[in-house]
Amino acid sequence: MSVLLSVEDLHINRGGFPVVRGVGIEVAEGSITVLLGNNGAGKSTTLDGIAGVIPVVKGRVTLSGQDITRRRPFKRARLGLAYVEQGKAVFPGLTVEENVMVAAPRERALEALSMFPELLRRQNARAGLLSGGEQQMLVVARALSMNPRVLLLDEISFGLAPVIVIRLMAAVRQLADDGMAVLLVEQFASLALEVGDHAYVLGKGTIEYEGPCQTLLDHPEILHSAYLGVTSAAATADADPDIGPPTTTGGA
Fold first, then answer.
1. Residue 152: closest CA among 37, 46, 19
2. What is the largest CA-CA distance in the chain?
3. Helix H segments across 66-200?
4. Contact 181, 149 (CB under 8 A)
5. Model-level pTM?
6. 186-211 per-position pLDDT tens digit
7. Contact status, residue 61 vs residue 83, Cβ threshold 8 Å
8. Residues 12, 56 contacting (CB under 8 angstroms)
9. Three-state SS across 156-183?
10. Residue 246 has pLDDT above 50, yes or no
11. In terms of DSSP bridges, do strands 3-14 and 31-37 run parallel, antiparallel, or are they unpaired?
12. Do strands 58-63 and 3-14 pair parallel, antiparallel, or not at all (unpaired)?
């Protein structure tokens, strides 16, 4: 699988203080890359920097081989990068169909809505009348209508019932199986790891672990150590010797 999104030595400040320091991430075509970490670790800031919502102090972001580090968000979108930010809202006074047509022509809007049949059945309903889960599906559908090659998802499960979260995760897995590259930030670590392929764990702005999602599912002590910022050697001491040490990257 080819790498569609590459992040190298990313440094980002907020309010004049360093939040992301030396982060490196790769997201491959047809796969889900999961980005985990405690609150305040820098997950959303990393996505904001990749999408161009906030400026990058240092580092490089490439999309399908093109350097997009200094490009404005709408230009990144035109090149195939879509970003569903945490808490992104629908336009309540518009219909479901109209909400998606804000971003794309009607034909593409209906194609995106078909990913969620429950939305397609209510395409003429006002978006403000949808449930919280349906509204989140609508936000994702709006991003999909832009026909992205890479999709950034930030906490799309926030505030939703577990049954809806499972529905959303299944849809995200289907998108990857159809060839999309997905970078997923998610509060439900176990659910994200179950649908994901590769994982990174952020701790205080640096990568504490990189490896297969299945490794973290099979050996939760490695994930726990990464969340606490324990060194690779300490994490490995609790892991299966056949797995080997978790890969650590990044730095101040």
1. 46
2. 57
3. 73-78, 96-101, 106-113, 117-120, 132-144, 162-177, 189-195
4. yes
5. 0.89
6. 988 999 999 999 999 999 999 999 99
7. no
8. yes
9. CCCCCCHHHHHHHHHHHHHHHHCCCEEE
10. no
11. unpaired
12. antiparallel
Amino acid identity of 125? A
| Contact between 33 and 180 (Cβ < 8 Å) | no
Residue 240 pLDDT > 60: no
Q: Which two tokens stand for residue 208?
A: 């504490």
Instruction: Please provide the DSSP assignment of 7-42 as one string.
Output: EEEEEEEETTEEEEEEEEEEEETTEEEEEEE-TTSS
Distance set, CA 5 to CA 33, 48, 151, 153, 243 (Å): 11, 14, 10, 14, 27
Residue 239 CA to residue 245 CA, distance in Å, equals 8
Which amino acid is present at 126?
R
Please tell me the distance from the alpha carbon of residue 51 to that of residue 54, in angstroms, as a whole number.
8
Strand pairing partners for 152?
Answer: 83, 183
Eight-state DSSP code of residue 247: B
108-139 tens-digit pLDDT: 999 999 999 999 999 999 999 999 999 999 99
Looking at residue 224, its amino acid is: H
Q: What are the pLDDT digits (tens) for 38-92?
A: 999 999 999 999 999 999 999 999 999 999 999 999 999 999 999 999 988 999 9
28 pLDDT exceeds 80? yes
Query: Which two three-digit tokens encode residue 164?
Result: 């809806």
* Token pair belonging to 22: 């030396």
Q: Is residue 29 within 8 Å of residue 1, measured between CB atoms?
A: yes
**Tokens 């971003």 — which residue?**
103
User: 234 phi and psi, to 5 degrees?
Assistant: -65, -40
